[in-house]
Amino acid sequence: MAAKKIKLFVDAHSFDKEFQGAQTFIRELYNHLLAHRPDIDIYIGVHDTDNIRRLFPLLPPQNILPYKNRGINILRFVFDIPAYIKKYRFDFAHFQYVSPKKMAGCRYIVTMHDMLFNDFRTDFPILFCLTRNYLFGRSIKNADIKTTVSDYSKERICNYYQIPADEVHIIQNGVNNSLLQYQSSKKKAEDWVAEKFGISSFILYTSRIEPRKNHLLLLQKYLKLKLYEKGISLVFIGKASIKTPGLARLIKSLTPEQERFFRWIPRAEQADLAAFYRACRLFVYPSKAEGFGIPPLEAAICGAPVLCSSETAMKNFGFFAPYTFNPANHTDFEQKLLLAAQQPPGDAFTSQVAQHVEQQYHWQKSSTIFYNLLQANFHCHETKNSDLRHEGHPELLWRV
């Protein structure tokens, strides 16, 4: 008799909003599981079903479960998700940050990517911090399987919520080299960006815009160093997520000459993003706080010279040294920005970094760790079920 498949539900609500790191985590992890783990029956819940169909080509269409549009997104926890769990009798349900009330028979997996709203409260709205702190804390404490994406995030989660370290598992983000499929060389990428966007010789920063991401600092130093007078442009790619008034004011104050060398692109297709990574003169990541930090790794895979913050989770990115900095030290950042912009690291260094990133951060490793967690928990649960059968209590099986 064929072994029973693990039935797993994934809440993919993050795909109904602006781009964020949780989308990359879900997309890459579950596409890898769909391709290599046929013993897992994966279902995905979401509003935008067409988008999921496109992003998860191996997912059977009948396994995409639509949420009803009720105007208030959190109502999916009250109506849609409990109904689906009851109907399909899922063994596991996987949530990012927030989970609904526990349902008998289904074990909850909660991935909490970071605790930045507590460690850097001045960079987030007060209501955001208060609501997240309660909802995230309740969810991670009650989860059957607790995961996060970095050593830094694990330490902060365990410290703040008083959770034993052995209960929190690290499923680190990987980097997908699919970005390399779009342009075969730096020259072709440069031509792509020049022809489509009219940009050449540029510094790049990709990230959604919010205060902790430090777009303001980078633009200030770019202007102070007058890099535009050297023909070097500055490009931001990412949607505004949390208001950053200082950045908005500075952008409005740009002179016509400065405006000519500054571009903000809220959203880019994968082919365009790949071209920007490959073509950039320098990729700068000045964020002061990250739960992980995927963009500098993506840039490195594409062969871009990277100047990266060394704080929070990015302390693990020592392989970028000496092109690292503490964003709180503005003088050091300014000096390193000027040096790297004028004399970016050469091909030998960037190739070495790209090779290290490819070997260290890959989804095969992360998906294997996640799969083993599922299997261990599943078989433990099945053993309990077997004990109940032998004891003559089949009516309790769905309550375990």
From TrEMBL:
Keywords: Transferase. Gene3D superfamilies: Glycogen Phosphorylase B. CDD domains: GT4_MtfB-like. Residues 21-176 form the Glycosyltransferase subfamily 4-like N-terminal domain. GO terms for molecular function: glycosyltransferase activity. Pfam families: Glyco_transf_4, Glycos_transf_1. Signal peptide: none annotated. The keyword Transferase applies. The keyword Transferase applies. Residues 198-310 form the Glycosyl transferase family domain. It comes from the Bacteria. This is Glycosyltransferase family 4 protein.
